[in-house]
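Feature request, filed as a ticket because there's no other form

It would be nice if the structure record came with a short human-readable summary line next to the tokens. Right now we just get the raw output. Example of a typical job, pasted below so the devs can see what we mean:
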Amino acid sequence: MENELEALSKQAQLTQEEILYYNSEKVSIDTHKKSIEEVESEILKIESLKDKFFTNSDLQFELVSLSEITQKTILSKFTTLQEEYKQKWINELNLIVHSLIVLKEGKEKEISEKEKNIAFQKGVVAFQNNIQHKEIEDKLKTQKDKLADIKKISEEANQQNKQIGSYILKVREEQELFYSKIIEIKDNLAVDKENLKIEASSSFDLNMYKNKLNYGINQQSFQGQDIVSFNSYDYNEFKQHINSLFDKLFLNSVTLKSGHTNISFITELFSTNYFNISYNIIYDNDNFSNMSEGKQAFVILKLLLEFSTKTCPILIDQPEDDLDNRAIYNELATYLKKKKKDRQIIVVTHNPNIAVGADSESIIIANQNGIKTKNVDNKKFQYKTGSLENTCQKDTKFESVLGSQGIKEHVCEILEGGNEAFKQRERKYAIILKSTKA
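Raw output as currently delivered:
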């Protein structure tokens, strides 16, 4: 087509230099006009950005846990700053638009000056009555414009592909980072203190992942059935599967159930946590799940006291339940005796190994008023407190049962069954105490 145009140009009553000048200026004018079109398009796009605002306008939801007064104060400040920022945003866009308008006006001025040039006007006059030349010239311009558009679209497509590639890479990196954080948290949660261990472990929730797949993927095709049939707990296999599915969704090669789009399904898949952290407690090389209820209760007590930062008194109700006396004396009482130095411990118990073996600082005896267990003034409940060193032989003349004897005697009577019961057990056990001479 350019050859045809050149042949027609030779037929015009112009010198070779005039034809070359005219063609050069015509190309320059057409180029400027194309640039003006692109600038006008950019101005329209920038103007549309003024209606877009990139700050969180739905802040109310984030403030629900605050008092009403605080909410109003924050929202008022936020609205003021939002308006200030929005105005600055519009002002900055206006400056950019102004610079584009100046550029456009400069191009228009250059076109006007070129079109007014006498040499260019001579070419216009020479060719304006040549219909064939005009048609070919217009067709050539159209083709050049299309070529320029194709080049621009191709460049934009390349940029978009690069951006999409970086987004995909970022999604996969974030997924990998999330899993590494799970492992890091798991390791940080592991505790080993004396003979008590807390082990944390992570696990992949295969059922949750398969439910997501079943919910979104149409399984009428073999491909859909193959995707949903994933059945591995291995993280690397899961990562490979979900990344492969990501690629297929991106290429629009997976059929989804109605109500789902590729974007919504990808968002659902990658915004779900498929990992759980579970804990296992080991005490004296014994797994918590295999312990008796009493030993489990003792381990929980140790957890409360060992890993708590609180210093307030703690009340424990009958910690001896389901524990044998050997464990009560050797472990529970010994442990309470050790921990009472760090924190006040109040224990409700019927076991003498705890009250005596833990070397209680203060004993509180409780009595409910009854026919043989009278309280002063027949009060329903009465209490007496003191140390184990508080002793006084029983005196039946006292009106109240609590006042009839000392703390040590009450402990022996309530927890041991009384002196006679204690002596009988001693005789039954036939315990011989060996004395040593100094």
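Something like this underneath would help us a lot:
Residues 218 and 299 are 50 Å apart (CA to CA).
The mean pLDDT is 84.
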